[in-house]
Write a structure and sequence with these properties.
Blueprint: H1 16-19, E1 23-27, H2 34-42, H3 47-60, E2 66-71, E3 75-80, E4 85-89, E5 95-98, E6 104-112, E7 115-122, E8 125-134, E9 139-147, E10 155-163
Antiparallel strand pairs: 1-2, 1-10, 2-3, 3-4, 5-6, 6-7, 7-8, 8-9, 9-10
């Protein structure tokens, strides 16, 4: 008699830490740390390449004043203040997503050690967003790292949000 293999397929379920991301979030950072982070990432570039890179970095690094996040058992839905929305499977599968200006990215999201990690793959580089929630204080930190073979240094910064309705 040959052995019989039985596979159990269990649904992917987000941890309580990632489920705590669900809700509406409001930016608390003022002034934004983004301009200084971009300048750090451009250090060492010549004037013309730095000018062109600065335009691109300013275009792709927005501090959204509000985020709406919904985490289900199998996906994450992120809504931004400008009305754009992403619906991403939690299993790390890359999907094509077109931003409002027409630029297309491959985007994937996965859970990593209680945080939600979102990775954008573009033709000229990569952006990684790490969402971390502190439910005791009603705060969300969004750590951003942008890398590109064209940049001498990564552009890194963290934005801070509080749960809507809390100050």
């Amino acid at each position: 008699m040959q052995g019989l293999l039985i596979f159990l397929t269990l649904p992917l379920v987000a941890s309580p830490a990632v489920q705590a991301l669900s809700g509406s979030w409001t930016l608390t950072d003022a002034p934004s740390p983004i301009p200084q982070a971009i300048e750090q990432g451009l250090k060492g570039m010549g004037w013309i390449p730095a000018h062109l890179a600065r335009i691109r970095m300013n275009h792709i690094n927005n501090a959204y004043h509000s985020l709406d996040i919904k985490v289900t058992a199998t996906e994450v839905i992120i809504g931004y203040q400008d009305g754009e929305r992403q619906q991403l499977p939690l299993d790390g599968q890359r999907i094509a997503w077109k931003r409002g200006d027409g630029e297309t990215f491959d985007v994937a999201v996965r859970e990593q050690q209680g945080d939600l990690v979102q990775v954008y793959h573009a033709k000229d580089g990569q952006r990684t967003n790490v969402y971390h929630v502190d439910p005791a204080h009603g705060t969300l930190s969004l750590g951003v790292t942008v890398t590109s073979p064209r940049l001498p240094h990564p552009v890194t910064y963290t934005l801070h949000y509080h749960a809507a309705g809390r100050g």
